[in-house]
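[#protein-structures] MJ: dropping Peptidyl serine alpha-galactosyltransferase here for a structure pass
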Amino acid sequence: MEMSMIFVVMAAMLVMGSGRARKSGHNAGGLTAPFRIHTLFSVECQNHFDWKTVGLMHSYSKALQPGPITRLLFCTDEEKRTYKGMDLAPTLEVPSLRKHPNTGDQYPTINKPAAILHWLKHSKDAENVDWVVILDVDMLIRSPIIPWKLGAEKGRPVAAYCGKHPELCDNVGQLLALHIDDLRALAPIWLSKTQEARQDRAHWAANYTGYIYGKGQITEMYGYSFAAAEVGLHHKMNNNLMVYPGYSLERTLIQFLCTVACLLVLEIGRLVEEMESERNKSRTLFLGIECVNTLNEGLLLQHAAYGCPRRKGSKYLSSVRSRTFTKITQSKQLTKQSRRIMEVNVQKPDVKEVYPNIHTVFSAECSPYFDWQTVGLVHSFYQSGQPGTITRLLCCTEEDLKQYKGHDLAPTHYVPSMSRHPITGDWYPAINKPAAVVHWINHVKTDAEYIVILDADMIMRGPITPWEFNVSKGRPVSAPYDNLIGCENEIAKTHTRYPQACSKVGGVIIMQIRELKRFALLWLHKTEQVRADMAHWSKNMTGDNYEAGWNSQMYGYSFAAAELNFRHVISNKILIYPGHVPVPGVKYRVFHYSLEFQVGNWSFNKANWTNSDMVNKCWAKFPEPPDPSTLDRSNEDSVQRDLLSIECVNSLNQALRSHHERKKCPDPSAFSPPIQPDHPILPPPNRDSASEEITASRKLGKIDKVDALRHNSELKNESQELSPPEVTKQTQK
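AK: finished. structure tokens for Peptidyl serine alpha-galactosyltransferase:
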């Protein structure tokens, strides 16, 4: 009975202390300017934030952290009506930005910079403080965090180191101690940069952010680092400010997005000491025990304050209540040795080389045929580690756009369709490729120095970079297209002044943006000229099996490049056609599945899937290729050829599955049977004719606006620069 009363009194003191914090500041310690400290943390109106709040507030009291503490609480109106935890901490209520009011993006973490900005604008405490300590709710304070004792200065915040490559900005986060003037300059840009990073889906991949799930969850942390760089803050970064329970003290303690996940270790310290004689391992386990015990101690006090009856008969609870535990976990003060360690900053390596920006583009149409190709290419782009961003140049008529459902499949730029030539009436959809590039260059501002041009029917296997393939002025890079025999006969002499400069290339193009700007329009004009030159459409002149001028766009490219005297770097290491035997040791970067290929009795021909809606039918996929283990291993060339063919279609199916998961299709374990292929609109091309491409038909139309779209987890648009006619409201929902 006496012990129960003691805990009730202790809990009452804790609650009373929190009440004082609202008015004059708990643990103020008589600090006056310029030594006033205020601690902040942000939470939501949810149970899992409440028990963390109890733990943090308890540790704040035990550690004797100077100055007041404020919980920045953001709740929706509906949550607030049923919320019961208003008395858990000194609180400032903040409007919730969990769902962005403009983009509809669901990203609760953006509330952290938004809440801090709200505190600066609306709290009187922000007018009476010199230093601010910013924590996360899933932290426990073990000793006072006093900024100037940790080395913080105005313009030089102190933070926990949080990364590996701080070449361009400070890799910091989670625990921050900075001057109030620095926070005032930083906060609005922190919020703005978080929004920018959140919308930059092209850089969510793990190879860019370090976040293994590639879903943009740490964009708030990047928003802070980018904002700090923007306002000129240079951090004193340190590995010794914070520890994750369970991490060995011999190794780096900080990694991206490792929250304070306390280990549930229920052994008493004496037993741990017997089990672990090695000092660092023993201390690691002790910290795990201390973490959970501190949380439980805070919960015991909170329950006692609520009048809950004391639980009996638990040795664990007795140990938590013991004087020994209280002594072990009392506030730790900085020693001379620890101060010396704290002053050791993480040194930034010298920046040896900054690579130029790259932008990848490809053209497509408003049709199911191009939609599944787009899904495959875009998925492979993010998996490949390709630097920069990707944009789909979508060529559609106004009528097509009214019914089109695939606006959010890729970052998109809308282009007027030239499938039917506006002057000649010629029906030639392939002309949209150079026309789309011309339109994009003239309507979009880009900071890219190099452009990579692909086709929709490609799968990326690795990065395509100008520095690896030696792009330079007047020396674009491309893949060989040997069937362009017109470079060696009178067609070249007819359409270029420099036929000797005609290169038989295509498929993948890497070019400097400056050269593409003066080249693209000529590419379009030469395509029109070759398309009009029907006298030279014969197979013996062009290599076109159908003698229909289908490769006019490719000749347009080669003749335009010759006209500008470009000398291509022709690489046979970039692209391979599934079904072709690979060169041993070459790591091809792109599959181009423009032709039919087969493995045993199984085959794949993209033309057979012209009208199949693989994207909007949940769990649709292509017939699975044979298992690699079933291949005949008697011929190594055949094995390697077949393995690449299998990889190509498996990549397409993986992309479709990922798309359907993002689309939130029901019951992912219950797949629909594969959609049966359509009858091809055109006869399949000759397998030996590697240079021919067959494109689906398009309708006549005109569009005069540009749109930049990015997909999110529910396949809804988040942002638009301009919108296509009559689809704005639909695509922004």
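MJ: nice. The two ends are 61 Å apart (CA to CA).
AK: one more thing. Residues 279-305 form the longest helix (27 residues).
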